[in-house]
Amino acid sequence: MLEAIGLEKTFVTSVPRAGRFKAVRTLFSREKRAVTAVKALDFRVAPGEFVGFIGPNGAGKSTTIKMLCGILHPSAGEVRVAGHSPQRDRRKVVRKIGVVFGQRTQLWWDLPLKDSFDILAAMFRLSPAEKERQLVRLEEVLRLREFWDTPVRKLSLGQRMRGDLAAALLHDPEMLVLDEPTIGMDVTAKRQIRTHLKLLNEAYGKTILLTTHDMDDIEQLCQRVIVISRGERIYDGEIGQLRERIGLPTVIRVAYRGDYRIPAGAEAGGGADVPDGGFRIVERREREVAVGCNRSETGVMDVLRQLSQWGEVDDVRVEEPDFEDIIHRIY
Ligand SMILES: Nc1ncnc2c1ncn2[C@@H]1O[C@H](COP(=O)(O)OP(=O)(O)OP(=O)(O)O)[C@@H](O)[C@H]1O
Fold first, then answer.
1. 60 Cβ closer than 6 Å to some ligand 1 atom
2. Is the CB of residue 58 below 6 angstroms from any atom belonging to ligand 1?
3. What does the alpha-carbon distance between residue 252 and residue 274 come to, in Å, rounded to a whole number?
4. Where is the signal peptide (predicted)?
5. DSSP 8-state symbol, 19
6. pLDDT at 330 over 90
7. What burial class does residue 28 get, using C-beta atoms within 10 Å of its C-beta: 0-12 exposed, 13-18 middle, 19+ buried?
8. Which residues contact 259 (CB under 8 A, 6 or more apart)?
């Protein structure tokens, strides 16, 4: 559906000048500096996938998205959207992709929401019947009628995003590219937007590429994640495998019914490594012990079998590493 092949973007900017009238002096400066925002980026998104595209501030995410939908021209490499180049076949690509920038709206600020769809339908040359059919379908997912007559500037952030998603989908593209769709929203609005996005992907078959700084968005929605840093791809794969690769421990907490006894070998380390057991003690309480293990090396059941020999097990909890921690580790 979507392919980035050796994609690069270098911006050439004037070197800032100091002193009086520095803004004007910078503008006419002959000294230039090149910033490579995206370097030799390769990835593919297959039809029906929901892929997270993440990285720290300034990593090159927005620059990539702008190249994917034809707003920016690559300095090298190319983009293919259903086989078309956004640079050469912009019209065809626009038909295939809907784009939403969470920080900006494509709706008309002072007009009632419904008027924006009239304008967009005219821009996409949709007949009144096509427009109505599509709005009925979008209503099933996005529930717009309740604020249909409200001017866009008076909508809540969550309502406006529902409007923006509908605007991006009005011409029924196969793919949605979303840049920070939940930015600034409270927990409830975020949850609602995630529900809409899940439905669009699962029930309506939309392929989605999602950029966000909210790791809950990624964890709850995406099957796969692409991580970029300083313009380069540093990971592309499943979230579960990313966890394993980073090697943050899975913590297993065992509560014992009465006293428990740690065998001499394990005790000796006083909370340090127990190489043979494949885990290490990270916390000890009166009737509870917590151990950490790397799941790519040791199975939880193997660890549990060993811990059950220390006393009578009453309860077990398995805590996976927090996704936010994993991401900080790789950035
Ligand atoms: N028009 C431009 N001219 C010059 N440099 C630019 C331009 N647009 C982006 N950059 C630079 O390219 C790099 C990547 O920026 P980009 O906005 O793509 O990052 P990002 O990953 O989207 O960051 P954020 O998460 O903060 O939105 C940054 O160093 C930025 O300063």
1. yes
2. yes
3. 15
4. none
5. S
6. no
7. exposed
8. 287, 311
Amino acid type, 255:
A
pLDDT in tens, 261-289: 888 777 644 344 445 667 888 889 999 99
In order, the DSSP letters of 160-218 are HHHHHHHHHHTT--SEEEEESTTTT--HHHHHHHHHHHHHHHHTT--EEEEE-S-HHHH
Any atom of ligand 1 within 6 Å of the Cβ of 123: no
**Of the ranges 194-198, 289-293, 326-330, which one carries the lowest mean pLDDT score?**
326-330
State residue 25's pLDDT score: 67
pLDDT value at position 273?
A: 46
> Domain locations in the chain?
46-243, 247-330
Q: Is the CB of 241 under 6 A from ligand 1?
A: no
Atom of ligand 1 nearest to the CA of 63: 18
- Topology of the domain covering 247-330: Alpha-Beta Plaits (3.30.70)
- Is the ipTM beyond the 0.90 threshold? yes
- Closest atom of ligand 1 relative to the 60 alpha carbon: 18
Mean pLDDT over residues 214-231, rounded?
Answer: 90
Task: Choose which CATH entry (3.30.565.10, 3.40.50.720, 3.40.50.300, 1.10.340.30) describes domain 46-243.
Answer: 3.40.50.300
Rounded Cα–Cα distance for residues 184 and 196 (Å): 17
Give the pLDDT band (50/70/90) at residue 211. very high
Tell me, in angstroms, the distance from the centre of ligand 1 to residue 41's CA. 15
In 239-303, the DSSP E strands lie at 250-256, 273-274, 279-284, 288-293
According to the model, what pLDDT value does residue 295 have?
A: 76
Residue 56 has pLDDT above 70, yes or no: yes
